[in-house]
Design brief:
Elements (H helix, E strand, L loop, with lengths): L2 H17 L3 H16 L4 H13 L7 H13 L3 H9 L4 H5 L6 H11 L4 H9 L10 H17 L4 E2 H16 L6 E5 H4 L4 E2 L2 E6 L3 H9 L4 E7 L3 E6 L4 E7 L4 H9 L2 H13 L3 E3 L2 E4 L2 E4 L3 H7 L15 H6 L14 E5 L10 H10 L4 E4 L14 H18 L4 E4 L2 E3 L10 H5 L5 E3 L8 H13 L5 E2 L17 H11 L2 E5 L9 H10 L3 E4 L11 H10 L13 H7 L1
Parallel strand pairs: 4-7, 11-12, 12-13, 14-15, 15-16, 16-17, 17-18
Antiparallel strand pairs: 1-3, 2-4, 5-6, 6-7, 8-9, 9-10
This protein binds 2'-deoxyguanosine-5'-triphosphate and calcium ion (2 copies).
Length: about 575
């Protein structure tokens, strides 16, 4: 689908226009980009149906933008975009990827210092040329250098959420092939790690040549690194690599076990096999020359004296010992979630009405859904004040009558934890909500002591039920806040505050290690999406994966519970 390609062009155009003070037009492009990203139909099909006319039926698409879409579909380029790029020879995307760098700063730095790309930026910051500029200063310069260092560290790895659409498409394509008997994802994607180096796929086939020929000529492939009868390796359109291996059926389980990893887990399982006088490799489990297991993973694990271990747990963090003692935790399943309590509606400038969100919740099979719009401190997010919250309550009451037992809409909010730990909404108003989420959305570079105190003060507010994205990291963009997480856990336990696992692919916050810590001391968690439009409700799977990687069980996660129990918590 060309949807993503066009969305990217429109995002870029929006940035260029914003630089050029065309902020109104920029907004229009950005809005359409967002819509295109989540459009289910193929934009080409839409166009084929009725040309410009059907294009204009897409929300936000006017005549001008429809013409640009048409131009791209017909010629593969958008002239206005090419012109903008030529006029402003700046690698905007690269520069605004640096935490704290916005379009305005990029523009100033270009005008004053002719900074065009990341390299220029780093050079200027290191030579202390940025600090003296008006509106920048020492602190900003330091932040820029930190931001660049962070980007460098995460280079070469991809966000899981970023690559999954393409991976799913390739898997679907391959599984339809008649020569493919069995297929599975392996490697870090199967372990659902938050970032991915490359994608590993495993196939059983009696005709490997046919499968490989098909694989290397898929439309998603831009380069073939190698092509053989058991292994091929390609670069995809998404700029990441994919490995495909073909194995015989009798070794499918052991190959899957081997190529799922992690490497550390594999080394430990192999060592265990040796200690039992066995040999474990990708071909099977062997006693002398005799193969005793290999067809399924369960058979392989059992043959070396272990219970089957979920892929998400295979990191050699103690899971092997538990599997040996038959004491593996019964981790949360992908269908255990009964509702999502962190959805933004059009009340705070989001895309969808509360009614639409509730319907989407029903489609997800949920029993309840929580509206948690931003509150007043966040002006750019159209945060709600006390009065608007009261008004929203009325609408939610009305909708609850309408939906009856199909789903229960709960009213919450995502309030802001101010620098002193207070909440930006009055207590009386908070008390009227079904639940209250509080999160840090400002002054994120506070020192450790103050930041920890700040969050602890918020948790002690009896109206606060949930802390959203508790450590504040953005993958590939910025580190966690400076906090004493153990202290935060202790207070969460004392105050019965629930910590959120935010499912957004670039947050996944809490992360696996922190989830394990929380579980260990008995702090409850909730898996939410933080969806700003209904399509993002689907992101919940990434949050669940993270919870599984943190060994969380159903009972550790409160939104696996029925409504009555949930309400008791609040
Ligand atoms: P990635 O691609 O960096 O996100 O991580 P993985 O885990 O997908 O690693 P990858 O693609 O290099 O290899 C896939 C699996 O193959 C890995 O999880 C375990 C297995 N494997 C790779 N190299 C070794 C090795 O040297 N020893 C052992 N025991 N297993 C290995
Ligand atoms: Ca891999
Ligand atoms: Ca690989």
């Amino acid at each position: 689908m060309k949807n993503q390609e066009i969305a990217k062009i429109f995002y870029d155009m929006a940035n260029y226009l914003e630089m050029d003070n065309g902020s109104f037009r920029a907004y229009a492009y950005k809005k359409v980009a967002i819509v295109l990203e989540s459009l289910e139909q193929d934009i080409e099909d839409v166009y084929k149906q009725g040309g410009l006319k059907t294009l204009k039926e897409i929300p936000g698409v006017g005549k001008n933008i429809a013409l640009k879409i048409e131009e791209y579909l017909k010629t593969g380029r958008v002239r206005t975009y090419e012109r903008l790029k030529k006029e402003t020879p700046i690698n905007l995307g690269e520069l605004i990827a640096v935490e704290g760098m916005g379009v305005k700063k990029v523009k100033l730095l270009y005008q004053k210092l002719k900074i065009k790309n990341l390299k220029d930026l780093e050079k200027a910051a290191k030579a202390h040329k940025i600090a003296p500029l008006e509106g920048f200063g020492e602190k900003t310069e330091k932040n820029i250098l930190q931001g660049i260092a962070f980007l460098k560290r995460s280079k070469g790895r991809f966000l899981l959420g970023e690559i999954m659409p393409l991976v799913d498409k390739v898997l679907e394509r391959l599984s339809k092939l008649k020569e493919v008997e069995k297929i599975s994802i392996a490697g870090s994607v199967r372990r659902v790690k938050e970032t991915i180096g490359d994608v590993d796929i495993l196939v059983v086939s009696k005709k490997p040549e046919k499968v490989m020929a098909f694989f290397v000529s898929m439309p998603e492939v831009v380069k073939v690194w190698s092509k053989g009868s058991t292994r091929s390796s390609v670069r995809t359109k998404g700029k990441f690599d994919m490995d495909l291996r073909v194995v015989p059926l009798k070794s499918y389980g052991s190959a899957l076990q081997y190529f799922t990893g992690s490497k550390e887990h594999n080394i430990a399982t192999r060592r265990l096999a040796i200690s039992k006088g066995l040999k474990l490799n990708e071909y099977g489990v062997f006693k002398g020359r005799h193969m005793i297991a290999g067809k399924t993973e369960k058979e392989v694990y059992n043959a070396i004296g272990l219970d089957l271990i979920a892929p998400e747990m295979r990191e050699n963090q103690g899971e092997i010992e538990l599997a040996r003692k038959k004491k593996l935790p019964k981790i949360i399943e992908y269908n255990d979630i009964k509702g999502d309590l962190h959805c933004h509606s059009n009340w705070d400038g989001g895309v969808n009405s509360i009614e639409k969100i509730a319907k989407a919740g029903i489609n997800m099979g949920y029993k309840y859904i929580g509206i948690a719009d931003h509150t007043k401190f966040l002006r750019i997010e159209h945060g709600l004040n006390e009065k608007q919250l009261a008004k929203q309550r009325k609408e939610i009451d009305k909708l609850n009558k309408k939906f009856g037992s199909k789903i229960r809409i709960l009213q919450g909010c995502e309030s802001n934890i101010m620098n002193d730990g207070s909440i930006d909404i009055k207590d009386e108003a908070l008390a009227k909500l079904d639940f209250v989420i509080a999160g840090v959305h400002s002054s994120m570079k506070m020192d450790k002591k103050r930041m920890t105190e700040r969050i602890i003060t918020a948790m002690k507010n009896p109206n606060v039920d949930i802390i959203s994205h508790p450590t504040g990291r953005i993958l590939k963009r910025r580190d966690e806040y400076q906090i004493d997480f153990d202290k935060i856990l202790k207070t969460a336990k004392e105050t019965n505050t629930i910590l959120e696992i935010d499912s957004f692919p670039d947050r996944l916050d809490l992360k696996d290690i922190n989830i394990r810590k929380a579980k260990k001391i008995g702090v409850k968690m909730i898996i939410n999406t933080d969806a700003h439009r209904i399509e993002q409700l689907e992101l919940i799977k990434f949050g669940i994966a993270q919870a599984r990687r943190g060994w969380a069980e159903k009972k550790d996660i409160i939104n696996t519970q029925p409504l009555s129990k949930l309400l008791n918590y609040f």
